[in-house]
Amino acid sequence: AARGLDVASYRERVRAMFYHAYEHYLESAFPYDELRPLTCDGQDTWGSFSLTLIDALDTLLILGNVSEFQRVVNVLQEGVDFDIDVNASVFETNIRVVGGLLSAHLLSRKAGLEVEAGWPCSGPLLRMAEEAARKLLPAFQTPTGMPYGTVNLLHGVNPGETPVTCTAGIGTFIVEFATLSHLTGDPVFEDVARKALKALWKNRSDIGLVGNHIDVITAKWVAQDAGIGAGVDSYFEYLVKGAILLQDKELMSMFLEYNKAIKNYTKFDDWYLWVQMYKGTVSMPVFQSLEAYWPGLQSLIGDVDNAMRTFLNYYTVWKQFGGLPEFYNIPQGYTVDKREGYPLRPELMESAMYLYRATRDPTLLELGRDAVESIEKISKVDCGFATIKDLRDHRLDNRMESFFLAETIKYLYLLFDPDNFIHNDGSAFEVVQTPFGECVLGAGGYIFNTEAHPIDPAALHCCRRHKEEQWEVQDLMREFYSPKKTKKFTLTRAPDRGEGENGKEPEDASSEKAGGKRNSKRSSHSLLSCPSQSFNSKLAVLGQVFLDNT
Asked: CA–CA distance from 433 to each of 55, 155, 248, 535 (Å)?
């Protein structure tokens, strides 16, 4: 079958798909969050911040379009305001808005924008990302440190807000929040993200599993299904990516413990099922399309053989339907009632991209080909690409999620573009002068957040605001011994990484107390203790089904 697929022509088709969707969004939907492709108009979905534009921004640069990237950055600076009376998902706002802005901020020099003298430690997009993230902080003011799922961007947490949040909605902050803390010098973001991760870890079951939804006030599990899919997925992803980004052994060892329990209790014949978190008994023998990120994650920890076997299982489902149904009953080999749709999700293409980097197996390019053909054939309409409501009869839904441009197109393009700057292996880089010394950037090793926004891990070492005593002593010694006043202490900052890692752990235990104190000082931001959107509608939005059997 591997007749040497024409990679360049598929790359160009993916580019054309991007512009077909993007131009119609600008024409028919902007400044609303999302395009409605069947009626050629727009709607606000996750807030009211031109979400598709923020989400698609770094994709423009990956496709090489610097002029439009620059134009959009100016549009966003003028037009986006987070001081609005809107109930927003804490999780979605973080991964799409904060993540998208951080990634665009770190790529803005590459895109030829004039950057501020203090960049990457300052800049308009970084200030926007910080402002959006500050709006989310009140959600973390809970007895457990686990955040509410919804926050009002103006008033903080609504009185009467449900305290039940899904696991992913608690454990998917460390990538964005640690990046913010490292760039701005304000530790509060990383502190709350770590505290939430630790609270989930502390509340795992005796057999080492976490459930699907938990009460953030009482730490009682409300939905006790354990698996790797919807409601849990990106918690595991962020333990691995956070560990890599921050070179943090503790996060990685948490993941490896979970990984053992997941293999022991949920894995059957290279499929993963849902089990009861305390007993380990199977509760639902279904594969969910969201789980298709797992092979990509396994490849990140070097478990390529297992990743490939699971990927091939998922690929057979794709071939059966021309898409991945939201739920697939593994024993019956068919869709699950009311879950037959495919909203053009990226997860299978994401895994294909990672595995192709690891193996160069041409089967992975074939999945990319199938995805392009299938999405074009089934979901392309005059005004963009529409969610597939039912893979059995190809009915469409009037929605184009922002992740189609942020993730699906990006991962497909990167699968077909082996020479993209994102795949840089460290052979090229730039040296940037910052107020804190010299800084190496753009050397590759990008960490994608769960909305496919790439973060340059080297940037986290550019902005040591609060120099630790160690540096101050070193600098004093250097001034004392150096005959001339040459400020040449730039490259001694290299041990940063290791020192950050060891310096983290002792401070960690106390950060629970310190975090509380620090937050209470920060009372310029509303710290309403209780938080909006009803539980059921939120579950419906996140595509959950864990209500019936709890």
From this structure: 29, 40, 27, 48
- Prediction pTM value: 0.85
Torsion (CA) 164, 287, 238, 410 in degrees, nearest 10:
-120
Identify the bridge partners of residue 223 per DSSP, sorted by sequence position.
213
User: In 10 A of CB 298, how many CB atoms?
Assistant: 24
Whole-number Å distance between alpha carbons of 391 and 382: 20
Q: Which residues are annotated as a binding site for Ca(2+)?
A: 450
The span from the CA of 275 to the CA of 262, in Å, is: 10
Tens of pLDDT along 98-134? 999 999 999 999 999 999 999 999 999 999 999 999 9
> What's the pLDDT tens digit per position in 258-283?
999 999 999 999 999 999 999 999 99
Residues tagged active-site:
92, 233, 326, 347
Q: What is the pLDDT of residues 506-518, one digit of tens each?
A: 334 434 444 444 4
Query: Using CA atoms, how far apart are residues 229 and 550, in angstroms rounded to an integer?
Result: 17
Alpha helices in 86-143, H assignment, sequence order = 90-92, 99-107, 124-136
| Binding-site annotation: residue ranges | 450
